[in-house]
Amino acid sequence: MLAGLFAFHLAQYLAIPLFPLVWVNKLNFSDETISLGQALFYVAVFIGSTQFNRISGRLGNQRTTAAGVLLLALYPALSAAMQGPAMYLFVSLLGGAAWSLTGGAIGNYILERTPEHDRPAYLAWYNLALNAAILLGSLGGPLLARSIGLTAALLFAAAARALS
Q: Taking the model in full, what pTM does it have?
């Protein structure tokens, strides 16, 4: 489980530093457009969070996490094909909805899978894996984009998210 979550977070953070490069360098979005997209992302997180209990109650935390991760794989894939602000705003809404599932379910999934008597140790290992993935992904994403190109790096990150 720890390896799978590390792989997801690594794939997640490979793409995150690339999004502003697409928005600013490729699409020439204004600060206003980027701010609107980010606001929509977090509105979708908020609204999705209000439905999280119903969804996770139906699917369970493992399936909710998996569904959220698969939806999050669409974010870099669609960003690679993005042509204008309308697609960006749609992708922002989709990404926020996906993160409401993933972010809500990961913690519950971890708590379900760890023995109660040793939870602090398991959570410490998860936090180490999470922080290592953040560091490696945030450094690796721009290096990958420099090596294979921005669009290819986003598609690679999308595939890695889906596989994780």
A: 0.90
